[in-house]
Amino acid sequence: MNAALKTTWGPIALAALAALAVCWFLPATLELFALINATVFVSMAILALSLALVWGYGGILCFGQAAFFGLGGYTYAVAAINFGDTTGAVPLAILVPAGFALLLGYFLFYGRISDVYLGVITLTVTLILFKFINSTASDIWTIGTAPLGGFNGIPMTPPLNFPGDMTAMLMPDQIFVLAVIGLFLCYAIAKLILASHFGRVVVAVKENELRAELLGYDVRLYKLIIFTVGGAMAGLAGMFFANCVFVSPTMFSLSYSGQIIIWVIVGGLGTLVGPVIGCILLQMLTNWAGTLEVIDPNLVLGAILVIAVLLLPKGLLPTITGLIRRGDRS
Amino acid sequence: MSAMLETSGLTMRFGGVVAVDRVDVKIHEGELRCLIGPNGAGKSTFFKCLTGQYKPTSGTVHLREHDVTGWDSFAIARLGVGIKTQVPSVFDGLTVRDSVLIAARRRYGAILARKRTDEVLGRIGIEDIAGKPVGLLSHGSRQLVELATVVASEPDLIILDEPTAGMTAEETARTAALIRQLNERHAIVVVEHDMQFIRSIAKTVTVFHQGRVLIEDKVDVVLNDPVVRDVYLGKEPIRAAVGRVAA
Ligand SMILES: Nc1ncnc2c1ncn2[C@@H]1O[C@H](COP(=O)(O)OP(=O)(O)O)[C@@H](O)[C@H]1O
Ligand SMILES: [Mg+2]
């Protein structure tokens, strides 16, 4: 019981406090533009968390996490435009990417595709979706009343409204709070999964697939489920992103897929909080680098990745906690 | 006695290499069988065919009333076959206790599994390292941890591929005693090179050579067989021995 308190409920309580603090301070202190930007960061943090779970604990290096992110965003936009009300669009934005992950994962894991090909296939699927959505500019690409808009995306993506009341649109500060709650819930769910028997088997499979199999665990099923959970979380991230900006093909782009992996590496593979922190720090940094207009932000990101891999091979969070522990002992 | 495990004509080919060549072997319920043979004889490959790690090229594997030929490893494991592989296959990132718990949890609910884990850790004699990450242990200890995970999942048939490799003489003797004790509840097939060890535990010995069963008999008969001595103990070049066996 003590161990569960220390490794699961304690961190969840801390995360709840942090979420409360952020919801208390930021909307009151930030200007509108900065707050919307902060919401984008939080949606990205959910995306980072989804890969932290799938890769860091499931051992599945998915180069296509952006595919679920983009699907979540587009599903939300299309459903919200068609329904007029966003209440039903939100669960769909989670279910459609999850369903897609389930289908894709089924072929990957039940086909016993090797890790290298898994990376290649997930990347290719993302690129195909990117190409496809980019080429939907003509009017025939309309789902119900929602034109997909090709490379322009869907600028009229509606913001969230109060559940069941389509006339009561949420304000940016309310959407920010919701996004933070979403991030917290994803974190808590991930923690609880990892503390369960299912989660322990997922980690065991990452450690040694053969051993898990020889002990009688069907590793395909465990990978498929954690992959699907990751797809659902990435879809939720896409939904929040669609609320701050609007959906466009860049959500499926290679640059996003790459960034997510960089956030996880820099923050610390094998932790949940690390990639979230890495994501937010790196986005603040690339945003700032973008305002300087003297250097390509992607170049900055690349340089940071190289430096992080060389100097902090374990990532930010594990390095810091390691230092603290060493300090405690002396 | 009915056969618990039976292979007929089991063959595994890798390109031109026939690693396992038309092997017919029967293991009975509760039996303790030793498998010996020089390196490259096909023992490990035979085990991989039994446990679904390889799909045999031809032939069949029957486990009690099931034809398990070509089944997935996890499904065969669920029928009660556990294997300690030659290269220790363990969860490096988990602690010893968590590794054993994962194994026990496949059979039992949370509370019983924890009880079973403590019991197995004690039986194998690794309680003192229960909290250590497996990745940091010595080769001999890793062998014991792997054995503990296999035992914790309570298979009816335990396959041990060179379980004492890398162990000290004392650890080896303890493992021999442990195997005898495990045999009270599980059928066991074990590959070993240590003659002392084989004499101390074996009843029936099967000798593999070049993918085939060379001889299968009582332990004294086998160990005193001149052909086996030649092939196995390398008293003359293998090639010459092969010529004689073929002749
Ligand atoms: N995956 C493989 N691919 C090709 N050849 C293999 C493979 N596994 C085993 N072999 C060959 O099969 C033969 C038997 O090997 P093995 O079963 O490991 O023998 P043993 O366990 O008796 O030492 C050897 O000649 C080995 O080189
Ligand atoms: Mg071998």
The biggest beta sheet of chain A reads: 2 strands, antiparallel
How much helix is in the residues of chain A? over 70%
CATH architecture label of the largest domain in chain B: 3-Layer(aba) Sandwich
Under the CATH scheme, which class of the largest domain in chain B? Alpha Beta
Query: In total, how many beta strands of chain B?
Result: 10
What structural class is derived from the secondary structure elements of chain A? Answer: mainly alpha
Topology order of chain B in helix (H) and strand (E) letters:
EEEHEEHEHHHEHEHEEHHH
Distance between the termini of chain A: 29 Å
Strand content of chain B: 25-35%
Total domains of chain B:
2
Strand order of the largest sheet of chain A: 1-2
Average pLDDT, all residues of chain B: 90
Principal-axis shape of chain A equals: globular
Averaged pLDDT of chain A, please? Answer: 91
Percentage of residues in helical conformation of chain B: 25-40%
Question: How does this structure look, described?
Answer:
- The complex is a heterodimer of chains A (330) and B (247).
- Chain A is mainly alpha-helical and 330 residues long.
- Chain A has one domain (3-250).
- Chain A contains 13 helices and four strands.
- In chain A, strands 1-2 form a two-stranded antiparallel sheet. Chain A has a two-stranded antiparallel ribbon with strand order 3-4.
- Chain A starts with a helix and ends with a helix.
- Chain B has 247 residues and is an alpha/beta fold.
- Chain B has a six-stranded mixed beta sheet with strand order 6-7-8-3-9-10, with helices on both faces. In chain B, strands 2-1-4-5 form a four-stranded antiparallel beta sheet, covered by helices on one side.
- In chain B, a hairpin with a 2-residue loop joins strand 4 and strand 5 (66-67).
- Chain B starts with a strand and ends with a helix.
- Bound molecules: adenosine-5'-diphosphate and magnesium ion (MG).
In short:
The complex is a heterodimer of chains A (330) and B (247). Chain A is mainly α and 330 residues long. Helix content of chain A is 74%, strand content 3%.
